[in-house]
Amino acid sequence: MAIVTVGELQDFLAFTPDMADVDSGLLSRQIEAAQNHIERLLGFQIETCFGGDDQDPVPPALEHAVMQLAAWWYAQREAASEGAREVPFGVRELVAEYREYTF
């Protein structure tokens, strides 16, 4: 289950009320892909550690990382373009605070 809703991402992207249905399917897929990518960086699924019964809520920093990455991928739909980066500045830094390291 996604930790960010399409409505929250639309707010983040500054969609106006008349744009409620614009790209909602694409935005949903961007959220799922962003969360999946962040979970791979973390080394665990977010819902296994946060947001459930007897668990701390999902940290706002992780929600923001998902929104930031999903918004980046929504705006930058090409894999390669002038000035393209692998991950937007700040996502890795937000995720690093919660990452599980194994040796």
Structural class of the helices, strands and pairings? Answer: mainly alpha
Q: Give the end-to-end Cα distance, rounded to a whole number of Å.
A: 29 Å
In terms of DSSP E residues, the strand content is: under 5%
SSE order in H/E notation? HHHHH
Radius of gyration: 14 Å
Low-confidence region ranges: none
Q: For the residues shown, what is the average pLDDT?
A: 87
What's the quaternary structure here?
single chain
What characteristic shape results from the CA principal axes?
globular
* Count of extended strands: 0
Number of helices: 5
* Main pleated sheet: none
Helix content: 40-55%
What does this structure look like?
By secondary structure, this protein is mostly helical. The protein has five helices and no strands. Helix 2 packs across helix 4. The chain starts with 5 loop residues before the first helix and ends in a 7-residue tail after the last helix.
For the structure shown, list the relevant keywords:
single chain, 103 residues, mainly alpha, 5 helices, globular
Task: Report a brief summary of the structure.
With 103 residues, this protein is an all-alpha fold. The chain has helices spanning 6-12, 24-42, 46-49, 60-75, 91-96. It is built from five helices and no strands.
